[in-house]
Amino acid sequence: MKSCSQEMEWYDLRLKWNPAEYGGVKVLNIPSEKLWKPDLVLYNNADGDFHITLQTKAIVYNTGRIVWEPPAIYKSYCPIDVEYFPFDIQECFLKISSWTYHGVEMDLQHLCNGTVINPEEDPQKAKKVILRGIDLTSYYYNVEWDILNVTALQRAKFYPCCDEPYPDITFNLTLRRRTLFYSLNLIMPCVSISCLTVLVFYLPSDSGEKITLSISILLALTVFFLLLSDMNPPTSLVIPLIGKYLLFIMIIVTMSITFTVYTLHIHFKSPTTHKMSPWVKEIFTELLPKFLFMRRPELHKKPKSSGAVRATNVVALEENSQVLEPLHTYENLVRSRRDVPEAEPSTNYYPPEVMDAIKGVTFIADHLRKADEDIEEERDWKYIAMVMDRFFLYIFTTACLCGTLSIFLTAPSLYDSREHMALKDPNATCIY
User: Fold this and answer.
1) Using an 8 Å Cβ cutoff, are 373 and 301 in contact?
2) N or C end of the chain, less CB within 10 A?
3) Is 372 helix (H, G, I), strand (E, B) or coil?
């Protein structure tokens, strides 16, 4: 919708008079309803009203020159391209021509002189371009749009039915959206949400709040999607730039939830339910931490061999027991146990009470060794979960940074250094 004052001039030879015969009167203000007026209409009208609503008086000079400047509100159709919203540049046009008169009956021209293009190659396609085709003196700066161009194109169109040309004037308006409001209220919150998505992997691996944080971020993105649907016109041709970014962040959040669930699954694995493969342990505990700048804290490891425990216990028994013979050392005990089948009771060397004690000590040692191995494997699973969290932290940080830059840097308005047109151009060749 455009609110403007349409300045029109034409000559009516029937309204010429000699001022000397009428008391020196050279100018008259006559109601426009009593005069002939050119039937100029807006071809790309959007509301079906092709006429000027307020019929003001016209200024009639004694030479037959008539000046009429009625205020008008035009509602035109302008195709909106929301591909780069909110960093978009829109091209709108106003096509004005006579509804019934052709070029021989009424020569429609712009008040300003312009540059004629293609005058000799094809006269039927000749057109005149006026760089400043709209007077912006009475224009008030818009809080949402910058005017970059107001070119007027004057041309004559030939139809197959007729030999006469049909002139028209097309005003092209180039508008660039001001992005401060959308940057503060839409883009910055979305970028902050993407940063929160990355911080999900910075929480401890056993924290159940990681899922809560991810789902909260997903709900916040849904709210922004609803706001975006109210701001943009409904279209299925293209996806707005901010819509692409929100969709990208939503995919990132969904993937982060998936990987977080898998990381928690890895963290709570136990040796009783899962057996760790050697190549998994090699990659995630030895190789990958070096590239992720991770160092596993050193633990005081207990002896893994149960033979040493058994040897210590047997020696202690031999030193404290009065029934053992000196020749029955640990080496003889081990050798005798290899020679004698396990099914046979070893009553030839020790009393039954001592053998029961040795079996009990051996069982306890094996149980402690197995418990130590299980604890070590549980620590390995938890460490693998930490490595995976650090790996996903780097991956998602890189993806969010590259995705944000690659999406927003495609907007052409970011590279457009043109400024808002001055309301009054002192170098303009056309004086309104």
Assistant:
1) no
2) N
3) helix
How much is the pTM?
Answer: 0.72
The whole-angstrom distance between residue 363's C-alpha and the CA centroid of its chain comes to: 63
Residue 73's domain is classified under what CATH number? 2.70.170.10
314 and 430 part of one domain: yes
- Our count of domains for the chain comes to 3
Q: Is 321 exposed, middle or buried (0-12, 13-18, 19+ CB in 10 A)?
A: middle
- Picking from 18, 53, 77, the residue at the C-terminal end of a domain is 77
- The answer to whether residues 28 and 50 touch, using CB atoms and an 8 Å cutoff, is no
Q: What is the DSSP letter of 52?
A: -
What would the two tokens of residue 148 be?
A: 């970059």
Residue 259, classified by CB atoms within 10 Å of its CB into exposed (0-12), middle (13-18) or buried (19+), is buried
The letter for the amino acid at 81 is D
For β-strands 89-98 and 40-42, DSSP reports them as antiparallel
Q: Clarify whether residues 90 and 127 are in a common domain.
A: yes
What does 131-188 look like in DSSP terms, one character per residue? SB-S--TTPPPPSSEEEEEEEEEEEEE--TT-SS-EEEEEEEEEEEE--HHHIIIIIH
Structural domain contains residue 44: yes
44 and 103 in a single domain? The answer is no
- Taking only the tens place, the pLDDT of each residue in 104-162 is 888 888 888 777 676 555 556 668 888 888 888 888 888 889 999 999 998 888 888 88
Classify residue 123: in a domain, yes or no. yes
| Rounded alpha-carbon distances, angstroms, from residue 323 to 34, 128, 332, 360 | 142, 125, 16, 19
Question: DSSP letters of 256-318?
Answer: HHHHHHHHHHHHT--TTT----HHHHHIIIIIHHHHTT--PPP--PPP--HHHHHHHHHHHHH
